[in-house]
Design a protein that fits this description.
The protein has 19 helices and 20 strands. By secondary structure, it is an alpha/beta fold. The strands form 4 sheets. The protein has an 8-stranded mixed beta sheet with strand order 6-5-4-1-3-2-14-7, sandwiched between helices. Strands 10-11-13-12-18 form a 5-stranded mixed beta sheet, with helices on both faces. Strands 15-17-16-19-20 form a 5-stranded mixed beta sheet, with helices on both faces. The longest helix is centred in the N-terminal third of the chain and has 20 residues.
């Protein structure tokens, strides 16, 4: 029996491709399998090739597999685009309706199955996705009842008849494969552990993290691939008295966020590269007024509109240095959906603690991939609003004087007040200002205020700024950021199987950068490879900018697709 298996379904957008994958993946997740699902789709509403690749395993795997065991094709284009991924003796199940042709030069087991016809016989052609799931179940040695719980949750609100119709279509696909004598015992899955875990995307986990952190307002403008954070919070925030406001653009979104934060609310917004560019003036305003805001930036292929539905990690420079003038920001980069939840909570606390704009940097593969995640531990969630002025401090303000909102303190973080607090009256302006917020061009005050804002992170290394796993006495060190974590881990395991000593360092906070800690890992390596999805080696250059010394080799990929483990493995193997 197989410990892991890779499966893909493909067709035209609007044919229920995502639904097909979700039914299979969610049902198996409920039975104790670990799932990683990656969606490939075109930048259009309907039509154009799309596919959903799912990795099913008895242990956690946070990456696409190098190959396919099973391909389900709703059209010939799916075979033409994806057939090369089938492993030797892999399985191709194609809808007989379009007279499918097997890929040339591939040794595959090819089964035309009348998916559409079977669906029509059981009520509607639209249910061919259910027939495909049933056929898959037969090949994997799974019972049709594996899917009943999920179908009840998905369709019962439409009536029991709808659930039964879908179940009938699924069983018909299952039975067709059995009746045709298609016995593929080599593809039977080993049983899952029976533990039901969460199954969600990075975007869902970010939204959930914002909710847990106390967010009650989200002004935002939709943009792929960040829109799902909005969509998640549109459903959830009203249940706790909160709101999502769709703004006219990203400029409005960021300035509304600043206003809400000034008023005392925990607030977030979300965007991708083009929207982040529009937000830059507002981020500068948050910086000079020391107003904490949190922005989710889900990176995609650029520049400009670029490739809106494709993967890239090319906003790192923009997140760190995109604003005019000089301000401090916190920039965090979670590497999986679990970290998206916990690091989102941390990001809000850090934004309040240091009174700076904070960017949570994800990427398309992380934000939109479905992952099996252990249930969250809410004992790890706490809310820290930072240096809020006490009423005793406010009562001590001399009569007729303003509150020193931007006071020079030993920690460089000033006490903060919310509107309406007695004794807390002060000015707020986007120009340089005194301790009470009055505009000034005094050169001494200007220098002190700049130093106050820029030096807040001196000597600071935020918790969990990086992670390390692998051999302690490594010769090769692999360094990554964001969604490359699972891929690098698999490449590392293969290299270790070849007898190499390999470590994996993953950077999770880009500012304040953990220079001393990163340097200590670099110093122990004979070869260091920095792996990222952009053309210019942004992570490597950020390491250099922050003073990291050593011989750093770049591996970059920027064709719109995430790495697969073999690409990293082969690159590193050729170096040594």
């Amino acid at each position: 029996m197989l410990e892991q298996l890779s499966w893909k379904v493909g067709g035209q957008q609007g044919e229920g491709i995502d639904s097909t994958g979700n039914i299979l993946a969610t049902s198996l997740n409920r039975h104790g399998y670990f799932i990683y699902g990656y969606r490939h789709f075109s930048s259009r509403i309907k039509g154009g090739h799309t596919n959903y690749k799912i990795r099913i395993s008895t242990k956690s795997r946070l990456a696409n597999a190098d190959y396919l065991d099973i391909l389900i094709a709703f059209d010939q284009e799916t075979i033409d685009f994806n057939g090369h991924e089938l492993r030797d003796n892999g399985v191709l199940i194609a809808d007989a309706k379009f007279n499918p042709v097997a890929p040339e030069g591939k040794n595959v087991r090819f089964f035309p199955v009348p998916l559409t016809k079977i669906a029509e016989e059981n009520g509607s052609a639209i249910m061919k996705n259910m027939v495909a799931v049933g056929a898959t179940a037969a090949v994997l040695g799974l019972s049709p009842d594996t899917f009943l719980s999920y179908l009840n949750d998905k369709f019962l609100r439409k009536g029991e008849a709808v659930v039964q119709n879908n179940m009938n279509a699924l069983k018909a696909g299952f039975q067709y494969v059995i009746d045709q004598g298609i016995e593929l015992s080599d593809l039977n899955l080993a049983p899952g552990d029976g533990v039901e875990r969460l199954y969600l995307t990075g975007n869902d986990a970010c939204g959930f993290g914002a909710l847990a952190a106390g967010v009650r307002l989200m002004p935002a403008y939709p943009i792929t691939p960040a829109s799902e954070i909005m969509e998640y919070l549109i459903k959830k925030l009203p249940k706790v008295g909160g709101h999502v406001l769709q703004t006219e653009d990203e400029i409005a979104a960021v300035t509304m966020s600043i206003g809400a934060s000034f008023g005392g609310s925990r607030v977030c917004t979300s965007t991708s590269g083009p929207g982040l560019a529009l937000m830059m003036e507002g981020i500068g305003l948050a910086g000079i007024t020391e107003t904490p805001i949190v922005i989710f930036d889900t990176q995609r292929g650029g520049p400009s509109t670029g490739m809106p539905t494709k993967h890239e990690q090319s906003d790192m420079y923009a997140a760190l240095w995109g604003t005019h003038g000089e301000i401090q920001k916190i920039v965090v980069a979670p590497s999986n959906a679990e970290e998206c939840f916990y690091m989102t909570v941390d990001a809000f606390n850090w934004a309040d603690k240091y009174q700076v704009p904070t960017i949570i940097l994800t990427d398309l593969a992380l934000s939109m991939s479905d992952q099996t995640v252990e249930k969250f531990d809410f004992s790890r969630v706490s809310i820290d609003r930072g240096n809020l002025a006490t009423q005793e401090q406010l009562d001590a303000v001399p009569a007729g004087q303003l509150f020193k909102r931007f006071e020079f303190t030993e920690s460089l973080v000033s006490p903060r007040v919310f509107p309406g607090q007695k004794g807390g009256i002060h000015h707020v302006t986007g120009v340089e200002h005194t301790e009470v917020g009055r505009p000034t061009e005094d050169k001494t005050i200007r220098t002190k205020m700049m130093n106050k804002r820029l030096n807040k992170f001196d000597g600071v290394e935020l918790p969990n700024s990086y992670s390390f796993n692998g051999d302690e006495d490594y010769d090769v060190l692999l360094v990554g950021v964001g969604s490359t974590a699972g891929l690098i881990d698999e490449a590392k395991e293969r290299l270790q199987a070849d007898g190499k000593k390999v470590g994996h360092l993953h950077i999770k906070v880009l500012n304040p950068f953990p220079t001393a800690s990163v340097q200590s890992f670099i110093d122990r390596a004979k070869t260091t490879v920095v792996i990222e999805n952009n053309a210019t080696g942004q992570l490597k250059n950020i390491m250099r900018f922050n003073g990291v010394q050593g011989n750093l080799t770049s591996q970059v990929k920027y064709d719109g697709n995430p790495y697969i483990p073999s690409e990293i493995y082969s690159f590193v193997k050729e170096l040594n």
